[in-house]
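Q: I have 207 residues here and want to know how they pack in 3D. Can you give me a structure?
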Amino acid sequence: MALIVTAIAVLILDQVSKLIIKNILDYGQMIYLLGNFLKLTYINNSGIAFGFLQGKFYLIIIMISFTIFLLIVTAIKLKKLSKLSKVFLGMIIGGALGNFTDRLLFKNVVDFISIFDFPVFNAADSSIVLGTIFLGIRLLFYEKLESDGGASRDDNGEVHSDSERKRMEIGQISDEQITILDFKNNDPKSNKDGENTGKRSGEKNQL
C-alpha cells in the first residue's frame, strides 16, 4: 500500500507541477529564485532525464516501458521490504510514470528546474534519483544482510534471524528471551553440562 500511495502521489505532484509551469511561464522564460544557483524555466525535453537521447522517441518509449515493467516485477517479488523501502521504490515508479505519461501524450517532457549549469530537470527526475539513492542505502545497510547469515535489521537497527522475527511478530518470544536463548546456545559451559548429563544418563542405562 505504501508503494502504491507514494507512486500515485509522485505522479500527481509531477503532472501538477508541469501544468503550473506551462501556465505561468512562456516557453524559454526564466525566473531567478536564488540568483544563478536556482532558477525556474520552461523547456520541452524530447530526450530522457537531464536531456540525454534527444529525438529518440521510440527508443526511449521502449526503454522506459521495460524499466517500469522491471520495477513493478521487483515490487511484487520483494514482499519483505520495509515500509520505508517501499516508499522509496514508489518514488522511482511514480517518477518513471510521470515522465512516461508526458511522452505518450506530448512526445516530450516538460523540464523546469535549473541549478547552475546542470541540465534542466523536473520533479519526476528528482523523485527517481532520490528514490534510487535512498533505496540503495536502505538495501545496503538496513534490509536483508547476507553477512549475518540470513539475518535482517528491524527499524531500530537491531539484527534478528528470520525465525526470530517471525516468532516476535506473533508474540511467542520477546527480545529478552531471544537474548537469553542465544546466550545459552553460545555458552560453552552450558553445552558441556549438557554433554555431561547425557553421559551420566548413558552410564545409568548401562548399569
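Q: Anything worth noting?
A: The chain has two domains: 2-142, 159-206. Residues 83-106 form the longest helix (24 residues).
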